[in-house]
Structure formats: C-alpha cells, structure tokens
Hints:
The protein has 8 helices and 5 strands. Helix content is 53%, strand content 14%.
Amino acid sequence: MNVYLVGMMGSGKSSTGQALASLLDLRFVDVDREIQKSESAAVAEIFEKKGEPYFREAESRELERVSRESGQVVATGGGVVLKESNIRVMRRTGKIVYLKTSVDWLVSRLAHDTERPLLKGEDLEVRLGKLARQRASYYDKAGDFVFVTDGKTPEAVAVEISASGLLNEKNKS
Ligand code: S3P
C-alpha cells in the first residue's frame, strides 16, 4: 500500500509528503526527482530540450516503476492526473490524497519559483488560475481523500492526513 499525493504545483505535495512519511514511518519518494535522476536532467531542461509529451512519458514510466514497491508516501507532479492510466496505477497500488489549495495560496507559494516550466511567461496568477480551472475536475475525480492546505504548514497537513485513518479505509470503487 502506498499513499499518493496529488494536487497543483505549490500545493505542498513534497514537503507534506516528507512530513507524512516520517509520521507514518514509511519511505518518501518524489516522482519528479525520480524522473530527474533517470533522465540526468532537471524538469525544466527536459521540457525545454525534449518537450512536454516526452516528459509525460517519463513521468508515467517512473510512476509505474515506483508503484511496484509498497510502503511509500509518493509525491507526484501536478500533471500526473491528466492521464487516466496514471490514476489507475495509483488506485491499484494505494490511496490517492488530493491536496487542495486555492489559487491565492498557490500564487503566494510560487511567487519566486524559477524551476517550473509551465509557469513561465504569463502573469503567475492568470496562469495558475487557468491551470487550476482546467485541472479541477481531474483532481476531484482522482482523489480518494481531499485535504485543504490553505494557510497550513506541511506538518499540520501531514498530521491531519495521518489522523484521518485513511490507511484503514477501503478504496472507492
Ligand atoms: C507539473 C508540475 C511539476 C512538474 C512539471 C509539470 C504540472 O511538479 O512535474 O513541472 O504539470 O503541474 P510539481 O507539482 O511538484 O511542481
């Protein structure tokens, strides 16, 4: 059994995931980091040199590889829910936790970000607003459990998740 964290960029998947893994005494894995290791390149560089479709293939491959192990808290990239097959892999091998964050909070957390290729160019609030609207239904559909992270520290969210008893719940069908 794994716990998969999904949600927008800046929702706190990696930091909450690390805190949750230590609370639950599970291993922490970050899919973006696994991609960077296997491609020997930063996410922004992969997008730039090989394009987004290539990145999405690598993302699905790494997710599938990670899912073969159990006992992990897995932070995913914000776009992982866009492919139905990724959701199937996560649902088959664990629980999917959606970290839901308002655009205002995402903007404040990502104001100084330089590493996310999908945030380049346009005004940050406009860009995040568009992405959040496009993806809302994907996150809603994917998440077995939803936690709102606005104004909360990663540690506080991790405590909420671990106290919720989700590890004892049955998956939704
Ligand atoms: C992406 C989110 C990023 C990373 C890539 C694409 C997305 O991960 O996978 O830049 O499509 O939302 P984080 O959600 O960890 O920032």
